[in-house]
Input
Amino acid sequence: MHKQVLPENIQSLPGIRATEGILEETFITQPEEFAMSTGLGLPVHSKLSTAELRKILTDVSRPQEEVEAARYELGARGALEAEQAPGDQLNVSTSSMSRPPAKPYANPAPSSSDNSGAVLGCIGGPILAIWAVFVLWYAPSHPCSSQVLPEKCMVYTELAATFPAAYPRVERMMAENLDIYMDRKDFDAVPFPDRKGAVMIIGKSWDPFAPWYDFASVQIRDIKTGKTLASFSCTTGSIDLKSDGWF
Output
C-alpha cells in the first residue's frame, strides 16, 4: 500500500498518530482539505469507497483515530447512518450532516367551506324531508284556502268542450293540485281510445299554473264515489287512465 508522509503542520494536529509520521491507509494528500476536520484534526479517507468506510466503522481492530476519520468522511458524504457504535459521540459541524428534524404530520384543519357544507347538510336534510311529505302526501288531499282559479286559466273552457254534457266541480288543492269531479257516465261518454287525449287537454290547460317543484297533478274523480278516473302529472306530463277507477 502506498505510504505518505504528513506535512509537519498536519502532524501536530491532535488525534493523528504522527509518531511515525506516516499513515497506515491511503489518505488525501492536499493539506488544505484537512481544514474540514471535526475538531480532532482527523484525516479523511477520500480515496476509499463508502462501503470500505462502513467496514472500518465495524472493524474493532482499527485504531480509534481511523474509525472516527471514517465516520467523519461518511458524514461529509451524507452516508453516515446507524453504523455509529453505541456510546460513541461525534459532533460534526458540516452543512451536509445538518438535517432539519422532520415535522410530524398533522391533519389539515377543516376549511370554512367544509364547515359550511356540514351546516347546510344538517339544515337542508330536514327541510327537504318536510317539503317532500307536504307536496307528495299532505297537499293533494287538502283544499287550498282560495278556490278561485287564475284569470287566464282555460280549465272550464276545455271541460265544456271535452265533456259537453257534464257539470264538473273543480276544487283547487294545496301545492297547485287540481281535483275535477264529474259524473262517471259523463266521463264514460268519451270513447275509451279518446279519453287519454281528453285528459291531456284538461291537464295542459292547468299545467302553466303549476310549478314543477310542487309535483302537482290534475285528477278527474267520480263525484259519487271519489274514485280517481284519470290523472295528469304537471311535472312529467304522464297520464294514468283506468276505466274502472282507482282505489
